[in-house]
Design goal:
Helices cover about 10% and strands about 40% of the residues. With about 200 residues, the protein is mainly β.
Amino acid sequence: ITAEGEGLGSGFVIDYQGHIVTNYHVVEGEHSIEVDFPSGYKTYGEVIGTDLDSDLAVIKVDVADEELHPLTLGDSSQLKVGQTVIAIGNPYGLTGTMTVGIVSALGRTLDSQRQTESGAYYTAADLIQTDASINPGNSGGPLLNLNGEVVGVNRAIQTAGSTMTGAAVNTGIGFAIASNIVKRVVPSLIKFGSYDYPYLGI
C-alpha cells in the first residue's frame, strides 16, 4: 500500500467485494491509495472507513476476482504466550516479506490515535506483543497463526532509537491489533465508515 507515493504500508484482503484491511495511520489524511497486489497488478483504492481508536482502516478496490485472495480471521482469544506467529508485509518496500516469532504477551495497551479535548490520548487495548520482526512498512499487514488465520494486524514497534535515515530501529517488541477487535470494528467501517464505542465519563 502506498499513500500518495510518500508512505508505505501493508494490508490484506478480507472478502471478494474488494475490501482491504490496513492501519488508520497508513492511510491518514489520504482518500486515494495505491494498492499493489502480489501478482504485480496495481490499482487505486478508496478509503471507505477509518477508526482512530483501534488504528484500523478499510480500503475498497474494484478488481477482478482472481486478484482477490481473502484471508480468514482467526480467534485471537485462543492465542497463548509462546505460540508461533508469522508477520507478512512490506517493510521498507520489500514486498511479501515474511518473519517468524512468538506471542510474547497478550492484553497490551497503546495510545489511541484519538485525543481528548484536554489533549490526552484514549487507550487502545487488547494488543498482541510479538517478537516477529516488524519494521516500517509492516503496518497494516497480517499476523498469522500456523493455520494461516489472521490473529492480528501489525500496528507498531517499540524502539530505542532511529537509523541514520530516521527510521525506527526494531528492538524485537512489536504490537498487533487482535483479530477479535478487527471482527467487531471492520464490519461497521464497511457499512458506516466508522465505529462507535461506548463511553463512560467518570
